[in-house]
Amino acid sequence: MLRNTIKELSTTLLNNTEHYNQIKDTVDTIHKHFLEHTNIESLDGIQHVAAVPTASGMALSLNHAAACLIDYHRTAKLLKGMVTLIQEKQQQYPNETIHIFYAGCGPYAPFLTLVAPLFDASEVQFSLLEINAASINMAKTLIEKMELTAYVKNYYTADAVTFQIPEAKKYHILFSETLDALLYRESYVPILWNMLPQLSKDCSIIPNNVIVQASLTFPQKETEKTRQEKEVATILNVREAVQQSDGNKPLPESFEPITINLEGNQRYHTMIVDTKVHINNDIWLTRNESSLSIPLEMEIAYPLDAPNVTFFYQLKPSVELKLKN
Ligand SMILES: C[S@@+](CC[C@H](N)C(=O)[O-])C[C@H]1O[C@@H](n2cnc3c(N)ncnc32)[C@H](O)[C@@H]1O
Q1: Are residues 225 and 180 in the same domain?
Q2: 141, 105 in Cβ contact below 8 A?
Q3: Does 256 share its domain with 179?
Q4: Could you tell me the distance, in angstroms and rounded to a whole number, from the CA of residue 257 to the centre of ligand 1?
Q5: Which of 29, 86, 95, 179 is deepest in the core (most CB within 10 A)?
Q6: Which of 156, 180, 210 is the last residue of a domain?
Q7: Over its length of 325 residues, how does the chain's per-residue pLDDT go in tens digits?
């Protein structure tokens, strides 16, 4: 039975969050089962590879959203974070069913299909939302094939940036991995802006936060051994920035700019911009561990054209980190 096979693989993954080869083999096996049961590979047509516009960016195509599964450390760490959080909520709310709102489930809805088999349907209930109709239809088929329909309360085909969640206060967890490195194009920030004021204050979010951080490396003429690095600015702390959202304020055009001054005695070699993804508790995606945490590295040329570098996170017309000229 597919559900039991996935339950075993999911348990293996939870018990091995350190060893890359074991994580890779387990996720590849899960992927093979999902491919077999969804026939994704036999799909053709532009609708399966074209990104879908949202109110403030782009959502991944069905094929690209499916491929997120094989971002190995991402999947293993999100799974660990999700299962741990459900267990914490069970402690906090004994005898209550834990309600999870899953915004952006993609075609495999992995944080339902890998998680639900570990619990009883009386313990966890999911509501799924996805902007891409082809993806949510496929998730529904997979959930049916895995005999997990008893775990699903609602399917919504809608844009999470504008969606009004029915019975929003009942949810204990919002899961939305709608991210890319540097928070480029995908809607994590506007989704939180829209959804956080609707949810209960005690509702936990996975990923819990994203911090875009600038660092400088030195000395200018580097060798690998002597290269040092210092953090110089937090360009964006998403959870702090979305605190301004009260359910009435529209999404701003952009968040406050941050300026980094490069003058001084020290000459730098490069500036690195990291996307630090905090999943929950002590679980983070570290630099280069996932496609979401690939850093941007820019060489600093001397003499400096301008002493200041100013970054800002644009929200309209589409989400994107920008450099001010
Ligand atoms: C990075 S994929 C992750 C898929 C899956 N949850 C996983 O973790 O493997 C993000 C998914 O969110 C969907 N998505 C992105 N923006 C959205 C939005 N504004 N409203 C609803 N769904 C969205 C995309 O279509 C895509 O399927």
Answers
A1: no
A2: no
A3: no
A4: 27
A5: 179
A6: 210
A7: 999 999 999 999 999 877 899 999 999 999 999 999 987 766 666 567 778 888 888 888 888 999 999 999 999 999 999 999 999 999 999 999 999 999 999 999 999 999 999 999 999 999 999 999 999 999 999 999 999 999 999 999 999 999 999 999 999 999 999 999 999 989 999 999 999 999 999 999 999 999 999 999 998 776 667 889 999 999 999 999 999 999 999 999 999 999 999 998 889 999 999 999 999 999 999 999 999 999 999 999 999 988 999 999 999 999 999 998 6
Q: Which of 131, 161, 163, 176 to mutate to test the pocket of ligand 1 (most atoms within 8 A of CB)?
A: 131
Strands (E), the chain: 52-54, 57-59, 98-103, 124-130, 152-157, 173-175, 204-206, 209-218, 228-237, 258-261, 270-280, 283-285, 296-299, 308-314, 320-324
Q: Which of 38, 68, 64 is nearest to 50 (CA)?
A: 64
Question: Where in the sequence is the domain holding 184, given as residue range(s)?
Answer: 2-210
Distance from C-alpha of 324 to C-alpha of 57, rounded to nearest angstrom: 20
Whether residues 8 and 54 share a domain: the answer is: yes
Atom of ligand 1 nearest to the CA of 52: 25
Which ligand 1 atom sits nearest the alpha carbon of residue 71?
A: 9
Tally of domains within the chain: 2
The residue nearest atom 2 of ligand 1, judged by CA position, is 65
Could you tell me the pTM of the whole model? 0.96
